Amino acid sequence: MSERRPRRRRDPDRTREDILEAAREVLAEDGKEGLSVARVAQRAGVNRGTAYQHFQTREQLIEATVEWVGDKLFEAVFGDPDEAKDQPVENISVEDVNDQLASFAMENPALGRVWLLEVLSSRRPAKDPFWRQYKSNFEKFAQTSFAQPGMDAEVLSVLILAGSFIWPVWARAHARSAKEREKMLKRFTREILRLSLHGTLRPEKYRELDTRVMRDLRKKR
Amino acid sequence: MSERRPRRRRDPDRTREDILEAAREVLAEDGKEGLSVARVAQRAGVNRGTAYQHFQTREQLIEATVEWVGDKLFEAVFGDPDEAKDQPVENISVEDVNDQLASFAMENPALGRVWLLEVLSSRRPAKDPFWRQYKSNFEKFAQTSFAQPGMDAEVLSVLILAGSFIWPVWARAHARSAKEREKMLKRFTREILRLSLHGTLRPEKYRELDTRVMRDLRKKR
DNA sequence: CTACAAATCAACACCGCTGTTCACTATGAG
DNA sequence: CTCATAGTGAACAGCGGTGTTGATTTGTAG
Description:
The structure is a homodimer of 221-residue chains. Chain A is mainly α. Chain A has eleven helices and no strands. Chain A has two domains: 1-56, Arc Repressor Mutant, subunit A; 63-219, Tetracycline Repressor, domain 2 (Orthogonal Bundle). The first copy, chain A, is elongated, with a radius of gyration of 21 Å. Chains A and B meet through helix 7, helix 9, helix 10 and helix 11 of A and helix 7, helix 9, helix 10 and helix 11 of B. Chain A binds a DNA duplex (30 and 30 nucleotides) through residues 5, 7-12, 15, 36-39, 46-50, 52-53, 56-58.
């Protein structure tokens, strides 16, 4: 036991990447609380001291990992950042965005959950590129004639994000085959679509409720 | 320092309650990961050994606390369990249920989040009275003529629960005055209602999408 | 009023983690 | 070649945690 590793080739960038990669793995397996610098360093095949050289504290290591997740999420949902930034809303398919989002969540359940809570509870959520883009897309879309009137884009952003990242918990995305995950994913995306198109209540059966909600609408913001 | 407390009066039930109460406080303040038997025992004014007598492990202490939250949540949303169990669905107001749920989540943000994740990831979620009732309500409702056709009640249950308990994170429910919480709560419940009634997309603008979703509907389950 | 099971408690043994420091070694860039 | 620096290893001081054990007290049943 306790094989002595040969010394790493000197390559700070590579080393940093290795540490981050290991951090992702640990985070994905055991969540934020399971992550210790010691474990990450071991998994990365790096001396603990070296890890502390690259990330001053455990918190910073987590932060850097979450940042990485945010970037990947952006890429998965909106594609190349440079092109995506200034796409007009009309070019963006509501359906595709939600599908990609839900798919990412299903394939990276633990990582995604950590990202979600970290970003939503952060002091400056707008720092995260994905959140910024996602929310602003929703807001712009709400202005178009394709959208139902009176939407609260912020609430909807949180709702769909929360649903997308929590659904894999219920679906037991870890511990399932790719095929089963695919099936659960489909169920989710289909229902989001159906909900988006028709809601859950038949408005004609809720006249009173409907007028009340829509009246509130006018006086607010 | 290190005042020596006088030995506790012998009263196992009371002691157990004190421990659970302290556990709730700790959980509410610092979440699942902040909970240690040591802290709970100290806060409860109980020897750590005593705590271990009542709850064999940290996990079991958490489990018991989550159970308590489930009960409270049930009570807050559905009222007295004995009466609620066999209410016909028609007597239950969709609006009220969602309002009470969101309100509970807003007033018990950390506790609620722990409950949500614990229940959804548990091996036997149906053990939790609230989840069981909530989901089955949704399923029964989906069968009525008040509901839009083709709803996936399970997806919707997870979606709304997730939204209700994650919204307070975004809303920074801790660290806000009662008045501000109330305002954020209103925004959420209103939007849920609006969404339930009208969705987000104008169906007439999404004919193709609509027919596709509804076609899928027929062949599935 | 006594016996006894159960409740309470202090102390024990042990773990893993954080963050720091320091001396040493290898290495790639210039 | 040389030298700043990445990487290593080891040790330290400290913290807070988990479970366990055996002695001690105490309510209560008989």
